[in-house]
Every structure is written in C-alpha cells, then in structure tokens.
Write a structure and sequence with these properties.
Two copies of one chain form a homodimer. Chain A is of the alpha/beta class. The first copy, chain A, is 39% helix and 21% strand. Chains A, B: Residues 11-106 form the CoA-binding domain.
C-alpha cells in the first residue's frame, strides 16, 4: 500500500514529466499534450520525446527516453498501441516509477488488445514501475495546474477529487462535478485501480469530498473496507453506471469492466456509507452542496419565499425526499407576522413578498432569513428569490444579504432556489463566498439537502461496524454434508440444507426422507401430526410449482390421501422427473412467511437476501440485500426496507412475528455463507415467523466445488 | 363559452388598456405597471388612472375611469384591496369587458378577504364584465410585447402558452418553461378559471404546446373534457403542485385551492392525455422538446458519442425511461466500423472518438449522425459531444453539422448531451435554428424523448373514447335498495351490495341472511356446500379483522362448529358489536383475489379502483384508478398497471384469471357509480377471478343522501 501511495504521489505531484509521443503539429485541433502542459501554468520540468528530435514550440525534443537528462517522476505515453510496450520498457529501464498510458485499443478493444495489455502488465512486474491506463485521459492536479491531458481543462479548482473510468469527468469537471482538485481516470485499470485511488483521496488532507464514476470494480470487498473507513472522514459520492442491461453490455466493451448486478452494488454502497448519485446533474449539485455546507443536523426545513406557488412546489419536493416542514416557534411566527400585512397569516413556507413590497425587500429578506435560521426548530432554510432582471441596480438582488446571513449560521445550510433570465448572474454573486449553493429547482435543493442531512446524521458518526461471530458452531458436520454432495458441476440439494441451518443455530423443521408411504406413515408418527409432505426429485427445484407439496396433514388417513394425490400431480405436471421419495416434516401452519437467501457476487462475495414470502417477494421485487458480514442493526434494517416489516410488526391486527429472531437468522446465514464458499446459492422458503420465533420450513441450496 | 373566448381575447390582444392605480414613483424598485408597459414595446393605447391626475413619464394621467376618453378592452387594477370593489364598479359602469385584478388579500387571505372576493364576483354578475384574479400577475402576450405585470419580463417568445396559479411562471418563463408566447395567471380564479384559459389555448392556432401550473381545480370533469380533446391537437404539460400533505396545506392558503387527492389527479391526467411534469426543470425541457421536435414514432434510440463512459450512462438513462437501444442494421454497422480503427468493434452506442481523431471530427460526426438517423431501426438519436473549450475556432464544434443533419431528418429527433465549461455557448449555437435541444444530462434527454414518444405514439392519435353504456340494466331495484338504506348520515351496508352488483351484471355470490344456526343450516342446504359464513353487524366493517369470516365449510357438521367458533371470536374481538346474524354464501375457494372499488372525488366525481386482493393492495399501495366513465381499453390498462396483472396472466404456472371478465366488472362498476351518486364508496373484496370468469364474493358500500 505504501508503494501505491507514493506512486500516486508521482502521478499527482510530479516535479518532472517525460512525454512520450509528442506531435510536431501544434495549435487548435492537434490535441498536443506537450503544448497543453506548457500553457497550463504547470511549474515542473517537461521533457518531450520523439524519435525525430529537433524542437517543438522552441523546446528541445529528446530522441528517446534514455536521452532525457533526468529520471522524471512521471511518464505519459501517447503513441500507437503497437509501440506502447517498447515505451513502457524504456521507462522501466530508465527507472521512471509512474507511467500513464493514454493510448486506446487494449482491453477496451479486441483480443489482440487484451493480449497487449497483459504484456504491459508483465513488463512492469517486479520493476517498481506502476501503470495508470491504458485508455485514460490520465491524471490531474488542478491545485498545481497539472494535467496529463491532450485537452485544455477548465481551471475551476475545488477541494474535491474524482476517480473515474472516463476522461470526460476530468475534462468537463466544471459541468459534471462542479469543479475538482485532484482527478485520476483509471481507464482500463491494468495496474493502479479504483481502490488504490480511492484510498489516496481518502487520506489526502486537501480533499474534502470524493467523487467516483464507476463502471465496474475489481476487488469489491477491498472497496468496501476502504470506503467504509473513508466515509467517516469525508463524503463519498458514486455515479455507478452500467446499471441497465444495455449499459452493462456497453461497459464491458468500454473498459473491460464487469458492471455486476446493480442491487449488489446498491447494498455495498449502503453498507459502507457511499452516497449513490442518480446522474451527472445530481453529482454536480451534491459535490457543490458538500463543499459549501459543513453540517446539517436534522431534516426540518424552513422556507422563505417571494412566491406562494413556489413555496408549495418546495413543500412537495421536501416531502419527496423525506425532509420535514419545520414547525416555527411562536417567536418566529410573531416576527414573520408582525412584518406582514394584517390580512396575512404567515407560516412555513413564509411568503415575504407582501412584506417586502411594503417595507423594502432587502430588510425583510434579511430579517426573515435570520429569524428562520435562528429558530431552534429549523435545521436548514430554502430561500426562494427571483432573478427576473440583471442583478446590477436590481432592488430584488438580495445576494449580499443571503451570503451574510449564511455566514452567521454555518451549521445550518441556507440553500437558494432562484428563477428568471438572470439566474446565472445571480448564481455567481450568491456563490462568490462558497457558503451558499444556488439550485435550479426545489427538487434539486431538497434532494441535495436530504443527502447532506443523511451524511451528517447517519453516515459520518456511525459506529465502526460490530460484526458478531456467532459462537458454538461446529462447522465440521456442515463441511462433511457439503463435501458429501459436491460433484463436478453445480448440485442442488434440499433436505440436508435444513440440517446445515440447524448446525448454524437457525431453527429448522424436523425433516426426514421416506422412500414410500409406509415409511412416511412411520416417520409422521415419530415427528407428530400435523405434518407436511414434499416430493424429492433431483429434477424438481420448485416443488410447489408441480404440486409437490402437501401441507397441514392432520392424521394417518389424510396422509394416505395426500401422498397418493401428490404423486399423481407430480406425475402429470413433471412427467420426466424421477421421484426418489418424499420428505415428511413437522408442520407449522401459522405465522408470517418470509424468504431468506444467499447468493454470491464475483466481486463482493456472499450476499444475504431477505424478502416477503410466497410469490410476493418476486412479484413486487420487494427484497433487501446485504453483503456478509453485516451487523445486527443492518439485519434489522433489511426488514425495514421491505413491506414484510409491516407484516412482522402485526398488520391490521394480526399477530406479527419476532423480528429479532429473523435478524438472528440473517446473521447466522451470513456466517454460513462466509465459512462455506461452496454454497453458491441457498434459499429458505419459507421461514415461518411467529411472535415466539422463526422456523425454516423448507430450504434448498446449490453447491459447487471451489475453482 | 363564446363570451369567455372573446373576453380572453380582450385580455390577450387588447388594443387599449386602462391601468387603475398608477404610482407616481417610477424607476427601478417601484414596480410601476404603467412604466413597464410603456417600455415593453406594446403598440396599443394605454390610459393611466390616478385620482391625483397630472402627468407621469410625460403622459396624461386620468383622474377616474370615467374620464378616460375611450372604453378600453382591458382594465388592470393594482390598488389596495379595500378600493378594488369601487374600481371594478367603475369598469362595469364604463363598459370595460375584461378586468385583471393584481391586488392580493382576497380568498388567498383572511375571512374579510374571502367576503370581499365574493362582493367582486357579485359586482360583475350579469354585466358582461369578466375578471382575472385577484392575486394575479395578470396576462401576457409576448407575440405582441404585451403584459400586465409590474415586473419587466424577459422576451423569450416561443409558440407555447401557460396557464398558471402563480406569477413566477410568467415573470420567469425563460427559466421555468424555456420561454412562452401567451400566459395567464388565474390567481384566485374568482371568475375566469383554469378551464376557460385551457380551452382558449387549445384553440389558439399559434400555440403549439400548452403548459399548466395547477394547484387545484374547480370543475374537474370539464377539465377532463377540454384536455381530452385538446391533447389530440397539441401536447399538454402539467406541473401539479400541492401533491404532498404539506404542499396541499400551503396551496389552500395560497390561492384558496383544494389540492385534492394526488392519485385522482394522476388518473385524470392519464385518461385525458395530459403529460405530468415532475418539476420545473422537467417542464423546461419538455416544453423545449415538444417545440423543437415535430415527431417521434418509436422508442429505439441510437447513440453517437465521443466518450464510451458517457454512452454507458446514456444507455442506463434510456432504460430508466423505457426507451430501447436500437439494433443498427448491417449497413449502418459497416459504415461505423469502416470509419473506425481496426481494433474497434463499433455498435450502439457508437463511440466515434477514435475515428474522429484520425479522420477529422466534423466529417466523422456528420457521417455517423446521418447514418444512424437514416437507419430504419432508429427512431431518435442522442449525440454526445464535448464543450470543453470555447466554440470559436474549436475543431470539436460540430454545432453546424448537428443542425444540418437534424434538418435532414425532421421526423427523428436529434437530441444532444454536451458537457464542459463552454456548454452554454455551444447550446446557443446548437439551438439557434430551433430543431435541436441540448440537455444537461442523459437522464434529461432520455426522459424528454420518452415523453415525446409517448405523446406521438399513444396520446396524439388515440381514438376518441368509446364509452360503453351497458344495456339491459334495470336500475329501479337498485335505486329502491339504496333509498331503503339511506339515513341522515352515511350508512354502511354489506349484503345488499351483492344484489346491487348483480343488478348491474356483476356476478356475485348468492348470499342470504340467517338469524341463527338453524336458519343458516337451512340456507346452506338450499345454496349447496361448500359455503362461507360471515358475521352481520353494523358495528363491524372489516369482518375478517375480528374473525367474522369462515370459509370453505364443507358440510353440516363443519357449519355447526364454524358458526359457534366465529361467534366466539367476534365476541372476544369486538365485544361491543351487536351481532344481527350471519350471511350464508356460496363459496368459491379457487382463483386470483382482486379488489374493486368506487370512491368519489369532490371535483372529478366517481373514481373506480382496482388492486390486488388480500392485504397486498394496501401493503404495496399497488392500486390503479380511473375516473368513470372510461373505456374497455382503459379498464384493461388498469389491470396492467398493477402486479395483479401477472397473477391474472397465470404466475409461475398457476391458472390465472379472466381479464375480460374483470374489465367488464370495472366498466359496470363505473356505470353503477355514475347512475347512483348516493353511493359514496363501495368495495368488492374479494372479486374471485378464475379462467372462466369473475365473482364478487363480498362487498360493502357507504351510502349517503345527496346534498
């Protein structure tokens, strides 16, 4: 890790740069890295390399890397792909530690390109030289006016950083993240990857907000560890693309990324405190919001507006994003009403237009904003003011008032929605001291404040995760059970899963195999009625779909009928299935039915699933995910994320179910998944939950040998 | 209607205007309507009125309306609220037909204000004089440089109109709707209302898009009739606020509007082809989109991009909004691949950066955009191009190429997402001919194209609604049943509802009242086993919540047990309820359970409801609404809007249910609601749906005398 950090310092704070592949063509449209760097204000030493030698823009050009009179901190390679390997070897020979490869056509392209990228990786192995790219716009440190790009960046420097998989986030940072300080486009990430850069930015003291543009990730669990720690220091914003099937396909061909299953990323982000942005506009405003406002300690919003209609729209937006309408104190209401015409009853939103028209808009705006932000029942204020005319000589320009009041209340955001043709001019005035953000709609303002509040109330100060290791589990029998079933390919098992669950302390029904009716009758007598019968067949994975389940069998006579009818149904619904027998199980007919499960993500590992039982989890996609391990609080949060919560809480007078018992099962399932990677997937369907506890009634798993 | 249309012409195309309440103070910050109008470029005659007389800005001021030498088409009143009534009477005396009252403090304020507004309405009754407002910024016709505002508007004139309940939509139209042509702020709508203005804009030939800002509506059914017709001529966009509880409360105090239940508005908008916008930014881009693009005939999108990463984000956005990735033809693929480096495999999104860098960006952009838009598998194209540097002398400025290619393919939108610090400059160039819209994110582009497509494929050419009147219904017995139950307040009835349903052709279980066990046994014998028993008690409206339902009773012995157990349960769960007896019903245990219902909205009238049965409709709020009458197609669409559709279609191998039968029940329920306004609400819960048909198993209604 130490070496990666120092390599990244080489990329971001080089004193000396060698540029390999400097074109002799200069000027607009030539995209000359050397020219851009010369003009950027960068203070370090630059050594252009081109086999032809000579001069470019009055500077000596070196014929080779070897000829350069010093060992640069960073080399930038921008030459055809077939020549890149040679250039990288020149760099390793010279002892250059940080190399950025701009060239496209490697893992982002064809088979040949993929093989060539492999060669690059082998060329640096053991040399101490690190690679960024290929297929990257490179690196940027706007604090030092340094960037490795063939495009001239805008210079809107902020205390934020971005790690991305596309150069547009560097070149268009003013737009996409409202400026930046540090930026690295990891491109194909042949060596330096997402996690390396994130770790660097998390530790960088100048960086107050980290933005991420992620198409896919290698090392999901390391990402979670780094992000989980970093999100306690500073907000992490992530724009994850490749969410959709079409997007994921395109991501694969763009940077060789595996976009992965989106809900797994969603779970990972939630667990490690990463705020997921919705699109580039969201990213822009969230980065701005986090830079401008140091805190927000609750969700109660006061609105001060020049338009009743705009106030209503803002209330709607606040509700959409889970913010609350502040309940102004009597003192606040008195001040607001005293300044307004008699016929008005001012409340929240506070319409200050009539008062402003009769008593001067600047005075009234100042008084009302200061009053609202001083109110102990208010956590943030949204001010709605017009930008109808140019702010010069405009009696409705309250920019200075807003900046001043915002400065007085640093712990409470003063957000502004302005509208009108002069919006941009007003925005520049309002944002000039960096303590106010102007939003183009109440929706943007409310969304941004909601995420700000979430960070400061839920993410920043959350305790370090207390993962429980559940004691007294004898894993040996489970390993034996699994080993006993493993075959060459994936194998589906049913009834042994209940025993595995039992070994991990998850209550499961007693379940025994019977080869025929006589054995079933005998077992039912042992287990005790009522019982359930379930078909056993390797060809049948969803028993109930083929009529292979019979529940609540109350006595011997009923069992005989149920047995015969079930075999008949299965025969007609699944004529090809070889029936091995039936399971006889103790039956628990009452309770809330939920589903628990395990699946495995190639990057994040075991994922635990919770949802409503029956067909409804699937029908409504009402399912919560966590990556194991997770805490008991997170297990309980999973319940709250689904509608099953209302059922477990006792819906419309029903008994409900024991949530702690379900949370316990989820934690135990997580540990089972972590300790037995051969379990590829597993479902408990249903887990019956009663006020007294939970019971796994049926389960199946897919087992596979580790590769 | 004719008189309303001509009155609105007076507001929007006045040749002569009298301004009542002209201040002697002029200049910045005085908000002088007369001064603003003089400077606006308006060509009509303006007559300022102020009792002091004299001159303002070199123009004669009249001491009274009577003194004005002609009868103006329009009078604008902006004086303290106590003087407004006198001024309105002056206008009626003079014979002025159109009056706009800017003054606040009427129904938007206190009791006194509400009474004063009533006086204004009485003052004009029968005079032929109409009112806009009070509490309005008035009217605007930017085509004629005319507006009645004390604020100077921007002059961004487009062929769109807006009817609103807040002046910000006139004063800030450049921002909020990207410009406008005609605009009316109806304010408190004491006379001229939302529907009047909508009707005028619908017929106005210059207006190509109608925007609406709605807080509430009076005359919901007239709104639907007008909008339903108008949406076939031109797109109607509506920003409905007061959606949230807090917003609705604020709307009530802002313009005296009743915000109403949001899902009823949602249903009304859907039924009459109104496109609901999400916020002001959405409104801005949708209005622009509809003005720029005359058509879009499908949802297949081709993406031409300079950035792979941006292409991926765009694919995600398209998927989010229900657009599809176009499947390029072989011809298109050949052209795109021939122009690109060998190592690239170009598809959709088409990354043209490598080709552009080697063969000239302008040529490549033109070729690829033209190729993609010529592809028969493409309905629209999103072009992603950078705005890194100033477009002057910028080799990446393809604005002209884009405008030209867009002009060649008028039936297929060419939408643009650009990013970078020079975005605004690029935007102005790209939009200069009005045939291209520049979006700030792929999300905005995809959302806008999705709504454009929806309008042109679903709304514009939809057939006039074919409402069916279901014949052979003898309503007399239903009226008798209802009349027999009506009392002073609302009355809940249960079993007679099944008979009402039966009369309207909705199949319902046979259901008979039994006062005791003996009667129940006798009735069950008549009806035939299996039967269901349900408790009868006026104090119990949700029978199953108190254990008052027993299903699938197979024989006499079971009935005896079930009867006794049910009475015991009810006694312990609802000790205060007076049990009148039990219902004995034929029982149909199999099928998909759905819920049908009726409720009444104060403005829109009878609303029919469909949802999944059991507790799930409520748990998931998975319910569809339509305002009666609606068509059979809409009834079927209601099914598709809920997850019940999947169950009815036969989920995971289950039998499913007859959708036509459910649609038929919905239509019949609509007619029942329309013909019997005393039915305040009604639920069929459940309607059991089998492949063969549907059957109402239980129902309840609340009846109330008409006021």
């Amino acid at each position: 890790m130490e070496s990666t950090i120092s390599a990244l310092k080489g990329y971001l704070e080089p004193q000396s740069v060698t540029i390999i592949g400097v074109s002799t063509r200069t000027g607009a449209g030539t995209f000359n890295v050397f020219e851009v760097m010369l003009n950027s204000g960068y203070k370090g030493r630059i050594f252009p390399v081109n086999p032809k030698g000579g001069e470019i823009l009055g500077k000596k050009v070196y014929r080779s890397v070897a000829e350069v009179p010093e060992v640069s901190d960073l080399a930038i390679i921008s030459i055809p792909r077939t020549a890149v390997l040679g250039a990288v070897k020149d760099c390793t020979a010279k002892g250059i530690k940080s190399v950025a490869i701009i060239t496209q056509g490697f893992a982002d392209a064809d088979e040949t390109g993929r093989a060539m990228q492999q060669e690059l990786m082998e060329a640096v192995k053991g040399t101490g030289t690190r690679l960024v790219g290929p297929n990257t716009l490179g690196v940027a440190n706007l604090h030092n006016n340094f960037y490795s790009s063939f495009l001239d960046f805008n210079k809107s420097t902020t205390d934020s950083a971005i790690v991305c998989q596309s150069g547009i986030f560097l070149a268009a940072s003013l737009d996409l993240t409202a400026g930046m300080g540090l930026g690295i486009d990891i491109g194909n990430a042949s060596d330096i990857g997402f996690n390396d850069v994130l770790e660097y930015f998390a530790l960088d003291e100048k960086t107050r907000v980290v933005n991420m543009h992620m198409e896919g990730i290698h090392g999901g669990r390391r990402f979670m560890a780094i992000a989980s720690e970093a999100s306690r220091r500073k907000p992490l914003l992530c724009f994850k693309t490749g969410r959709s099937e079409a997007g994921a396909r395109a991501a694969g061909s763009h940077s060789g990324s595996l976009a992965g299953e989106d809900h797994v990323f969603g779970a990972a982000f939630r667990q490690c405190g990463v705020i997921r942005v919705r699109d580039v506009e969201d990213m822009h405003y969230l980065n701005k919001t986090f830079l401008a406002y140091p805190n927000m300690s609750g969700r109660r919003i006061g609105v001060v507006t020049i338009s009743g209609g705009a106030g209503i729209a803002t209330m709607d937006a606040c509700a959409d994003h889970g913010l609350e309408v502040a309940d102004f104190t009597g003192d606040t209401l008195k001040i607001l009403n005293d300044m307004s015409p008699d016929w008005m009853d001012v409340n929240n939103p506070a319409d200050i237009w009539p008062a402003g028209m009769s008593r001067g808009y600047l005075n009234i705006a100042k008084l009302s904003l200061d009053t609202v932000l001083s109110d102990p029942n208010v956590d943030a204020c949204i001010c709605i003011t017009p930008a109808y005319q140019d702010p010069e000589n405009n009696p409705l320009d309250i920019s200075e008032v807003i900046r001043e009041v915002a400065g007085k209340h640093p712990g409470k955001p003063l957000a502004v929605w302005i509208f009108g043709p002069s919006r941009e001019k007003f925005r520049l005035r309002l944002e000039s001291e960096g303590n106010v953000v102007v939003y183009p709609s109440p929706d943007r303002a409310a969304r941004s404040l909601a995420m700000l509040c979430r960070y400061h109330t839920e993410i920043k100060n959350r305790p370090a995760p207390g993962y429980e290791t559940l004691g007294e589990i004898n894993t040996a029998p489970v390993s034996e059970l699994i080993t006993g079933h493993l075959a060459d390919g994936p194998v589906t098992v049913n009834e042994p899963v209940l025993d595995m669950l039992g070994a991990y302390g998850i209550p499961a029904v007693v379940s025994r195999r019977a080869a025929n009716l006589e054995e079933a009758l005998a077992l039912a007598g042992d287990i005790g009625y009522p019982v359930a019968l379930k078909i056993i067949s390797r060809q049948i994975s969803h028993k109930s779909d083929v009529g292979g389940v019979s529940l609540n069998i109350r006595d011997e006579a009923a069992l005989q009928t149920a047995y015969r009818q079930m075999l008949q149904r299965v025969k007609s619904n699944a004529p090809g299935a070889a029936v091995e027998g039936v399971l006889v199980q103790s039956f628990r007919p009452e309770g809330v039915e939920v589903i628990l499960g395990i699946k495995r993500d190639p990057e994040f590992g075991p994922v635990v699933i919770f949802g409503l039982g029956g067909i409804y989890a699937e029908l409504f996609r009402d399912v919560a995910f966590r990556i194991a391990p997770f805490t008991r609080e997170e297990a309980l949060a999973m319940l709250r994320e689904t509608k099953a919560y209302k059922l477990l809480a006792g819906y419309r007078g029903a008994a409900g179910g024991n949530m702690d018992a379900v949370a316990d099962c989820l934690l135990r399932l997580g540990q089972l998944a972590l300790e037995h990677p051969e379990i590829k997937e597993l479902d408990i369907n249903p887990l019956m939950v009663t006020p007294g506890g939970a019971l796994a009634v049926d389960a199946r798993a897919v087992l596979e040998k580790l590769k």
